[in-house]
Specification:
The protein is mainly alpha-helical and 204 residues long. Helices cover 65% and strands 0% of the residues. The longest helix has 30 residues. The protein is elongated and about 65 Å long. The relative contact order is 0.08.
């Protein structure tokens, strides 16, 4: 049996509906008109379009008991879905131009130069703000910068150890063999994003 080439490809909005919204099956409150109800679900699907299938499954399980109303069967708020999405699959910085612009400043090259780009990027992506004050207090910002610095140093030592073992013909642990290409690819992607952001800022 051949495939129907005229079948439209599933969009990310449709994927979120199929994997999350339809299985939840909540209903709208009676006072909600059809247009507003559809707009809510479309907005949730668009907000979560970047989320992986695995993370959508985890959000599904987390949201099953989070319905509103006496019987817990009304749709939760859009903010609730976004909050769980941030927990299980933080929104990538590449999808947040205002946040990415921070790396287009001197901060991106600075983090790249001191070897903490991946760790700084990960912090920003999870927290949605830079590890500086404001918005953080000076004490909290200092703690965040130290944590990033230590994580970067640990990762640099891990890379060095992996490469040293390989050069000496010593087998690395499977976890290290899997982690190394992941980290190097993460560094490549972050570096490319910083360079592109800076080129865009400069009007190149």
């Amino acid at each position: 049996m051949g495939f129907d080439t005229n079948q439209p490809a599933e969009t990310n909005r449709d994927r979120v509906r199929r994997l999350l919204l339809q299985p939840l099956g909540f209903r709208h409150e009676r006072k909600t008109d059809a247009e507003a109800g559809q707009a809510l679900l479309d907005g949730i699907a668009d907000d979560l379009a970047y989320v992986s299938d695995e993370a959508l499954g985890r959000i599904l399980e987390a949201m099953r008991g989070k319905g509103l109303g006496v019987h817990k069967d009304f749709w939760p708020t859009r903010a609730a879905f976004i909050a769980y999405a941030e927990t299980y699959h933080p929104r990538p910085l590449a999808l947040s131009p205002k946040l990415l612009s921070w790396f287009a400043s001197v901060e991106g090259p600075r983090a790249l130069a001191n070897g903490s780009l991946v760790e700084t990027w990960d912090y920003f992506e999870k927290k949605k703000h830079p590890p500086h004050s404001p918005p953080l207090s000076p004490a909290v910002a200092d703690s965040a910068r130290r944590a990033i610095k230590h994580a970067a140093q640990d990762n640099a030592r891990r890379l060095e150890l992996i490469q040293s073992r390989r050069a000496r013909g010593v087998a690395n642990l499977p976890d290290d063999e899997a982690w190394e290409p992941w980290y190097l690819e993460r560094l490549r992607v972050c570096t490319e994003a910083v360079n592109q952001a800076r080129a865009g800022k400069a009007g190149v």
